[in-house]
Amino acid sequence: MDLLLDAICVVDAQGRFVYVSGACERIFGYTCEELVGTSMMELVYPDDREMTLATAREVMLGRQKNHFENRYVRKDGQIVHIMWSASWSEEEQLRVAVAHDVTERKHTEAMQAAVYAISEAANSSEDLAALFLLIHQIIARLVPLSLFSVALREQTDGSLNFPYYADQHGPQDARESADARTLCAEIIGSSEPLLLTTDTLSNDSDLLTLTDQTSLNWLGVPLIAAQSTFGALLIHSHAINQRYTAKELELLQYISIQIASAVQRMQMQARLQFLSHHDHLTGLPNRTLLFDRMERALARARRDKTKVSLLYLDLDKFKQVNDSYGHGVGDLLLQAVANRLRHCVREVDTVSRVGGDEFVIMLEDIQQLDHALQVAEKIREQLNLPFQLAEHNLRMIPSIGIALFPEHTNEHNELLNLADRAMYYAKQAGGNRSQVATLKPA
């Protein structure tokens, strides 16, 4: 029996090993002498103990069990997958089982299944946050982890941000740890995978500066697309008796290719979605997004019996800026105006650019017309302040038309037309003022 590749185990009614064959040392890492007399359940992976106990009870009732699979923790902390065939000897009051190591098969199956699952997640997720949550769940089924994080490098300044960070042992309100940031920066900077345990940490390593030297059990892989490293995926386990190995790192590297592709594809989709709904110069919502938000805002206002106001704004004599100083300065002016408009309203409101030097501000959940007039006056005062742009000191005055839902109309297109018409009359009256719409303007 000691020459068999599969292990033979005999366990008493209390779950203690009374005999193991020689193959047990190869599979579990413990010698026969170390195993005999110990509890079998001490070796079982914690998440599998409940189903293992349930199966053991069935075997002890005389039911033959074949091809039962569970996981065990080796002496060196690695996890092995075992397929069991077991039966009960009523006369001897012993369970006799044959253990076949299927770790390699499970490893291959896990990699294939993970790639497929990540592909499905990429197609079903609405945004990156939802995608990272699904990837977290997929990887947690493959390797033990208590921390899962994704770091992405900003293209503009190279800084790191963590769009996803989950730590079971950290404060719920805490963002990424200093160690996670250090390790992700190391992975992205080197474009190399990371396997960091007490066994792999070198005495001269820069990573000796990590704040937590007592729980070194990290795995990390770079996220690479078009030969450029744009992020990192990092996991950590607090388990004392388990250590990550090259096998888990291989798995993470294998699926990181699919993850990087999914992230890049979703980022591109998000970028295209943004461009289709925002003005390329100012980053403000465009006419399409404004109309979509108007429909939703009016629906809420009807339900909650509140008001919505549109402020249609035009910059008087903006054409003279382009003619005198060039379109480059004109673009800078439009960007500066957009920035000031954002600071004049609440987050719930919408500032949009609908073309040229025309902007529309939608004020939600207001109670009376005076609120819209106050915002219009604040905008006028802010835009009257000088703009220092490209060594030019410019002044710009607005004409603002105001329309109110439901007083002026119940329909969003007509609301916009009334605000536009009121803006025209403000301009005709000399500009640098606001004008409230009327149903039949003179």
Descriptive keywords:
five-stranded antiparallel β-sheet; Alpha-Beta Plaits; alpha+beta; 442 residues; Beta-Lactamase
Structure description:
- It is a single chain.
- The chain is of the alpha+beta class and 442 residues long.
- The protein has helices spanning 23-28, 32-35, 49-60, 103-124, 128-140, 178-190, 246-277, 287-304, 318-325, 327-342, 369-384, 412-428; strands spanning 7-12, 17-20, 65-73, 79-89, 94-101, 147-153, 160-167, 194-197, 217-225, 228-236, 307-316, 350-355, 358-366, 387-389, 392-394, 397-405, 433-436.
- The protein has three domains: 7-101, Beta-Lactamase (2-Layer Sandwich); 106-276, GAF domain (Beta-Lactamase), CATH 3.30.450; 287-436, Alpha-Beta Plaits.
- Helices cover 40% and strands 27% of the residues.
- The strands form four sheets. The protein has a five-stranded antiparallel sheet with strand order 2-1-5-4-3, sandwiched between helices. A five-stranded antiparallel sheet has the order 7-6-10-9-8, with helices on both faces.
- A hairpin with a 6-residue loop joins strand 6 and strand 7.
- Helix 4 packs antiparallel against helix 5 (128-140), helix 4 (103-124) packs parallel to helix 7 and helix 9 (318-325) packs across helix 10.
- It starts with 6 loop residues before the first strand and ends in a 6-residue tail after the last strand.
In short:
The chain is α+β, with helices and mostly antiparallel strands and 442 residues long. It is 40% helix and 27% strand. It is built from 12 helices and 17 strands.
